[in-house]
């Protein structure tokens, strides 16, 4: 599976392992010889730092990137409250603008071979009064990788997300089963069910890792 520009990593929900998979994907592409950068356009739950708000996931993507870049380029919209981004933006007196994100993406893409863009929350998360994460993905025109957190309810979430991605006219390049603690019953059966019902390929099954670094996650991805 290849892409000339990169991938958009989304998830069935928040907290399903998008960052871990994005980091693993970046490592995999770097091993292939690509210069890769990560991007998290919108992040809530950021911590104050001397130079401004910083998001832990975005910092990991920044550290994994092949080229040194300004934090604001990797994460144009950072908000302190760990709440829906459009609400956090409203509270901060800011409007999340897709054009601002697209401009930052273009600057990043001009310096590397591939960009791995990590979404926020799930596929239909609102970004402002009109646009959702799906609208951003459509503007970026990147193939999508869906991270499925293997927990109760994941079948419905995964199938609905895949249908929405297809409805948006985007390519679902594949999906990743990310096993989360505590593991529910019938994980293997759930994975088999999704394999039979999703048209996109299963790109990997990530176990619960003691040291979930980029290289460790990449070992379980077949991309």
Strand portion: 15-25%
The CATH class, by name, is Alpha Beta
Helix content: 25-40%
**Biggest sheet features:** 6 strands, parallel
CATH-level-2 architecture: 3-Layer(aba) Sandwich
Lateral strand order in the biggest sheet: 2-7-1-8-9-10
Write down the Rg.
16 Å
Sequence stretches where pLDDT stays below 50 over 5 or more residues: none
Series of secondary-structure elements, N-terminal to C-terminal = EHEEEEHHEHHEHEHEHEH
What is the quaternary state of this protein? single chain
Can you say what the CATH homologous superfamily is? P-loop containing nucleotide triphosphate hydrolases
Query: What's the total helix number?
Result: 9
Tell me how many strands there are. Answer: 10
Q: What is the SS-derived class?
A: alpha/beta
What's the pLDDT, averaged over the residues?
Answer: 95
At the fold tier of CATH, the topology name is Rossmann fold
Number of domains: 1
Can you give a write-up of this model?
- This protein is α/β, with parallel strands linked by helices and 223 residues long.
- The chain has one domain: P-loop containing nucleotide triphosphate hydrolases (Rossmann fold).
- It has helices spanning 18-31, 56-64, 71-74, 85-92, 98-109, 133-140, 154-167, 187-197, 214-218, and strands at 6-11, 36-39, 42-43, 47-49, 52-54, 77-78, 114-122, 144-150, 172-179, 202-206.
- A six-stranded parallel beta sheet has the order 2-7-1-8-9-10, with helices on both faces. Strands 3-6 form a two-stranded parallel sheet. The chain has a two-stranded antiparallel ribbon with strand order 4-5.
- A hairpin with a 2-residue loop joins strand 4 (47-49) and strand 5 (52-54).
- The longest helix is centred in the N-terminal third of the chain and has 14 residues, at 18-31.
């Amino acid at each position: 599976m290849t892409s000339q520009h990169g991938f958009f990593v989304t998830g069935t929900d928040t907290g399903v392992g998008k960052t871990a998979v994005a980091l693993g994907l970046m490592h995999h592409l770097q091993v292939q010889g690509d210069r890769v950068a990560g991007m998290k356009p919108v992040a809530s739950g950021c911590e104050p730092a001397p130079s401004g708000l910083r998001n832990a996931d975005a910092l990991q993507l920044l550290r994994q990137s092949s080229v040194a870049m300004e934090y604001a380029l990797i994460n144009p919209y950072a908000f302190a409250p760990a709440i829906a981004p459009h609400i956090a933006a409203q509270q901060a007196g800011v409007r999340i603008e897709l054009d601002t994100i697209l401009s930052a993406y273009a600057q990043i893409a001009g310096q590397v071979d591939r960009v791995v863009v990590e979404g926020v929350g799930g596929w239909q998360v609102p970004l402002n009064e009109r646009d959702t994460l799906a609208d951003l993905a459509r503007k970026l025109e990147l193939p999508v990788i869906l991270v499925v957190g293997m927990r109760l309810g994941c079948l419905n979430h995964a199938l609905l997300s895949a249908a929405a991605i297809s409805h948006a006219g985007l390519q679902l390049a594949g999906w990743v089963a990310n096993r989360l603690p505590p593991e529910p019953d019938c994980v293997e059966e759930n994975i088999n069910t999704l394999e039979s019902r999703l048209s996109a390929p299963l790109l990997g099954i990530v176990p619960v890792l003691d040291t979930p670094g980029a290289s460790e996650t990449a070992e379980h991805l077949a991309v």
